[in-house]
Amino acid sequence: MITKLNHVSVFVLNQDSALDFYVNKLGFKVHTDAPMGPGMRWLTVCPPEQPELEITLMPIEDGMMFKDGAAEQMVELVKKGTFGFGVFECNDLLATYEELKSKGVVFKKEPKKEFYGYEALFVDDSGNWFSLSEKKRE
Amino acid sequence: MKDDYPKIYLYKRIVQAKLFIDKNYFDKIDLDNISDESYFSKYHFIRLFKTTYGKTPHKYLTIVRIEKAKLLLKKRNTVIETCFAVGFESSSSFTGLFKRIVGLTPSEFQKKEMLRESELVTMPLKYIPNCFAENKGWTKNSNFQEVT
After folding, report:
1. Is B89 exposed, middle or buried (0-12, 13-18, 19+ CB in 10 A)?
2. Taking CB atoms and an 8 Å limit, are B4 and A113 in contact across chains?
3. Which of A3, A125, B63, B75 gives a 20 to 30 Å CA spacing to A23?
4. The complex's ipTM?
5. What is the rounded CA–CA span in Å between residue A106 and residue A86?
6. CA distance B67 to B86
7. Class of domain A7-134
8. Which residue numbers delimit the VOC domain (chain A) (predicted)?
């Protein structure tokens, strides 16, 4: 029986820049930052109230994961905003929207009431998009 | 659009108050001043802040201070240095509050983090799912100690 998700990967164009975005703009915490040899690093962050979910900031590099030009193709797809990686939840969407906007986060969709509650869409510094949602107000 | 939300102008003021705490957590922060600057009565301010962030401004300030303290302790600052750097005036109240929230005293937390930091250098594979480590070719690096 599967019980939980504890790691998920987000492919980023630059780990340093992604670290700055996820920590200083979104307010996430660094979970693990391990040097893995020259130019390599295992870097995970987690949402402030979900320390058990590690989001791996995975650089797109030639190697075993991306072979035969796949890295170049992947970079192009990420830059085009092809990938949506998930839904983040907050207590109050408009307050979070105002704060993130003041920090320079780009939104693809402004807060809007949907059937299930309020939602907005923002993009990270690489071009990956995420939904930001709030539980339905009673 | 956003007009579904009641009283949008209130949000901007509450967000400003939260950002003020984020920036000035190490100073003496008087909630009366923040509520005055936000043009709210203290009672109204606390109620709106709690509705927006799920905790009172005082509780939020405490959490910000403890989180900053954790970062400073990880960077090897002493407990006393950390205590004053994040805005506490007494090390005993800092230590007590830290233990209540984190579950460890600041010294215990620092010791645990130092051990983890050292392991991240000597045996990082302990912290990386093997499927990824293998994919990256890191399991072949003989410089890393094997996890026992």
Report:
1. exposed
2. yes
3. A3
4. 0.83
5. 16
6. 9
7. alpha beta
8. 4-135
Residue B104: DSSP 8-state: S
| Chain B interface includes A92 (CB < 8 A) | yes
Phi-psi region of A52 (alpha: psi -120 to 50; beta: other; left: phi over 0): alpha
Q: Which residues of A touch B50 (CB under 8 A)?
A: none
CB contact under 8 A, B15 and A56: no
Write out the two tokens for A51: 């320390």
Contacts of A98 in chain B (CB under 8 A): 11-12, 15
Whole-angstrom Cα distance, residue A59 to residue A79? 13
| Helices and strands (DSSP H and E) totals, chain A | 3, 8
Q: Is B25 helix (H, G, I), strand (E, B) or coil?
A: coil
Q: Is A81 left (phi over 0), alpha (psi -120 to 50) or beta?
A: left
Kindly report, residue by residue over B82-130, the tens digit of the pLDDT.
Answer: 999 999 999 999 999 999 999 999 999 999 999 999 999 999 999 999 9
* Residue indicated by tokens 């499927």: B131
Q: Compute the distance between CA of residue B130 and CA of residue B33 in angstroms, rounded to an integer.
A: 52
B2, β-bridge pairs: none
Residue of B128, B138, B143 for testing the chain A interface, max A β-carbons within 10 Å: B128
Query: Quick one: tokens of A67?
Result: 């072979």
CB contact under 8 A, A110 and B127: no
